[in-house]
Specification:
The complex is a heterotrimer of chains A (about 325), B (about 450) and C (about 260).
Chain A (H helix, E strand, L loop, with lengths): L2 E2 L7 E2 L26 H27 L2 E2 L7 E2 L3 H8 L1 H31 L8 H9 L6 H12 L4 H11 L16 H26 L3 H9 L4 H12 L1 H16 L2 H7 L11 H11 L3 H27 L4
Antiparallel strand pairs in A: 1-2, 3-4
Helix pairs in contact in A: 1-13, 2-13, 3-7, 3-10, 4-7, 5-11, 7-10, 8-9, 10-13, 12-13
Chain B lengths: L1 H21 L28 E7 L4 H17 L3 E7 L2 H12 L7 E3 L7 H6 L7 H7 L1 H4 L2 H6 L1 E2 L10 E2 L6 E9 H7 L7 H13 L13 H14 L2 H9 L8 H15 L14 H7 L5 E5 L3 H8 L3 E4 L12 E5 L3 E3 L6 H11 L2 H9 L16 H15 L3 E2 L9 H13 L5 H18 L1
Parallel strand pairs in B: 1-2, 1-3, 9-11
Antiparallel strand pairs in B: 3-10, 4-5, 6-7, 6-8, 6-9
Helix pairs in contact in B: 2-16, 10-12, 12-19, 18-19
Chain C lengths: L3 H29 L8 H9 L2 H32 L5 H11 L4 H14 L6 H26 L2 H9 L4 H12 L1 H17 L2 H6 L9 H12 L3 H21 L1 H13 L2
Helix pairs in contact in C: 1-12, 2-12, 3-6, 3-9, 3-11, 4-6, 6-9, 9-12, 9-13, 11-12
The chains are: A mainly alpha (about 325), B alpha/beta (about 450), C mainly alpha (about 260).
Amino acid sequence: MTTVARRKTPKSGTGSAGPGAVRRPGRAEVTRSPGEPRRLGWLYVLPALLVYGGFLLWPLVRGAQFSLYDWDGLGTAEWAGLSNYTGIWTDPALRGAFGHLLILVVFYAVLPCCIAFVLVAVMSRTKIRGLVFFRTVLFLPQVVAMVAVAVAWQWVYSADGPVNTVLGWLHDLGLPDWRRGWLGDFTFALPAVGLVGTWVGIGLALVLFLAGVQKIPRELYEAARIDGAGPVREFFAVTLPGLRRELAVALTLTTIMAIRNFDLIYMATAGGPGNSTKVPAYEVYNRTFNTGEVGLGCAIGITLAVLAFAATAGIGRLVEGKGA
Amino acid sequence: MPTLMRRGAVATAVALVTALAAACAPGSSNDKPESKAPAAVSTDVAKAGNVTLTVWDQEVQGGLKEQIEKLNAQFQAKYPNVKINRVSRSFSDLQKTLRLALSGSNPPDVVEANQGYASMAQFVKAGMLLPMDSYDQVYGWKKRYPKGLLDLNSVTPDGKLIGSGNLYGVSLNGEIVGLYYNKEKLAKLGVQPPKTWAEFEQALATAKGKNEVPIAFGNLEKLPAMQLYGILQDGLTDKEAVRKLVFGSGGSWTDAPNVQAAQKLADWAKKGYFTKDSNSIKWDDTPVNFAKGQGVFMFGGTWWAPDLNDRMKEKVGFILPPAAQAGAPAATMGGESLPWSITAKSKHADVAAAYINFITSPAAMDVAVETGSLPVLAAPSKQPEAALMKEVSAAWAELSKNDGTTPYIDYTSPTFTDGFGGPLQELVAGKKSAEQVMKAAQDDYSAFQKKK
Amino acid sequence: MSTRGERLVNHAVLAVFAVIAVFPMIGIVTQALRLPGLDFSTFGTAWREGHFATYLRNSVIVTSITVVVSATLSIMAGYALGTMRFRGATAVFLLFLAGLTIPTETIVVPLYFDLRSMGLDNTYAGLILPQVAMSVAFGTFWMRAYFRSVPRSLLEAARIDGASSWTTLWRVLVPIGRPAILTMLLLTTMWTWNEFLLPLVIINSDEALRTAPLGLSFFQGSHKTDYPLLMAGALIIAAPVVIVYVFLQRQFIAGMLSGAIKE
């Protein structure tokens, strides 16, 4: 099971996998030292709990509450019941935004994992020289501020940017002219944004899988070969099952990244052209602060929290099997 | 672990529901700010003590920036006890942040809040702007400005009707959206500045045939297509009808002339008259590209004139948009720049009013001319020198003479930029028909009218 | 066992993807510094016009306070939850755990309105407190795992020596827990430094308080498609984290992937 923490570059940890974790955490078997007052624990926990409660849980409560009102953020609020939530379904622009999220999950999560799998399958399990270097470089997109990433990719996709330059060369060679303003194109803006996510996610998946595949016992591969398994069967019979944990972690982290996609959209497209790159994370902001639909914005926010939670809890179960 | 997570969720949910029961409803019942009696207004800034006046404006470009800097310096020189803390950001950045800042705990004293139902009317409804009627009585702005211009900055206190109610701001510059053209290119194409649509379309076809970009157009922000649409609409409809429609007192976006205007826009896009991939080009880049020679014509506001004048000198010309038929009275969008308003929470409302009066005084109109801007009122002693600025003021004068300005389309509703501008981008990209786009506009419009 | 060919394929694949991974970053650096000529004038213009000196200072202030406060609180809470037994401990832990998945997008709107009514919008505190809250959710979870792994014998030895629980924590457990704490510090630093949505909403009028990423967004607003200038801005805000990352990449990666790497 994986737990994913705050923000778009999510952190993870499993219950068993704290730093230097030795024991699996079952029922708490921690014993109290004799003479230790029972309330002492609370004194240690209280400061963190107060800040956490006041500035994370309380806003969550308020968000849930706001989502039940019709409020423009300026005047008085009117009780709206669940109409903001039904609005998410009835407003075609918002329904579209959640549809875009689904597509982005493919680009952010599914695609990087698939590509990384293929690469890991192609690469033999020999010792890699300079692994530390490759790992550092491949992982780099994870640590660069998304705002800076957005600026860089706007350039990559710009009219005179590298993508169009290369396509221009291809055009000179006789291929059709594929150059266009990628981020302003109704058909290609969303995939263009999605590919940025693929770019961020691929290194993460690759680093994870490379580490994982080293841990699969060599005997399993040898046994598979003795059974006459080809590379494809070998992959499905040995590599894939051996990488379950890593797959679960990679999918969870990248899916959450897709859900928390505000920075890139705000900087690069602001949801445009038309509504073609609107995503829920952006709509939280847009509906609240641009069009003055605070209740609706909060309803989208709560829905996102539910989705993030479901993704975290669900993917682990799905990939690792029940009770993993 | 999933079990743990689920238990965590349950624990959170329980805490959440408990807390919900205790939380109070969002939003406060706000009292509308009252205008104080004219007699209570102090016009003596020197007696106000040391005051820091925070002013938010959107004048970040060339001449406009210079104009405000000059006026601010003059005001501070006249009243050494006042320090102006100027915060300026581009139009779109201002739109994004003003709403947040106005509702914040410590808003600026003076702001440029855009006219229309998307901005000013909402702020008025929420009681964030101070009615300026008593200042008007003291300073006599009604005598200074024609009624039409003050009406644009007037709203009923409930925010429901623009054009009546209280005055919430006065403007500094005049502005209209017109047609810029590259004189060199026109000469090379052997084309005269067009006076009618027929001539204009002829010129566009010629330009296209010679591999020029007929119209420089950048539409990333959705507003540019709305302005272009508005110009076409002004050609096909009576200006009164447009005013009624935008301000919500009659008509429908699906009326035949309104659909025709969209159709015209679609036709031009289809014929390739606009910059390629215009939906991916930023609005503020359009005049930069135009100045570089990418475009024979460009529709744009007079606010671009000082900057274009610097970049292109005598190579650029400005005319009112061609009329649909020869001899038809000129009409286009515009009126006045963003009004300067006082926030309800300002502790220095009297000083703020004196400042606004100062920057809209006749002497200030001279400063506008000096810095290459188009003053909203006739400057008493200065005449524009640059050729472009002369053309701009001539166009402005002609329009003012026959009351030819119509309101900007984005005044219509708070969501109109998305609700209409988004579909217009699809129209430009050839993804939606004129009928579909105008229906989308009407849907947004009627939803807002119902809620209002 | 591995042939030369196999090894070559491996390295070729990795090299290709390494190039893809750094390609946009190379674009940033070459354009910002006008490589290969190395001309700092664009960089200088961006630095001045973007007011990045101020924005970096703000980021340093916000990040360092957030990290120090949240680390202290997390160590204390993790210590209690990992080594002590008291009524409600499990519930508290679950509460922190649930917080790990809550996106900033969910809480930013109510946070804005409530901070505003407290007068904390456009203040450092308005930026720091919510980020401390987000960080302690992870920090507590992380530190609890570390404290649970500490051998009981160590705790008992300290007790027999007469050390109070407070002394045991700071004099014994924290010093030997440096690797775990370092990872937590690094991750919190990175997340706080890179945070964008929260400053965008909370620092909405006072330009002097903008953090570096927020500054870049407004810099983009006024420079649009002047890419060399924008790239210089991007370089300025991304460089500090990247430099730290290059030196301490092991801790970064281990922390971010800990779920899978540890068995």
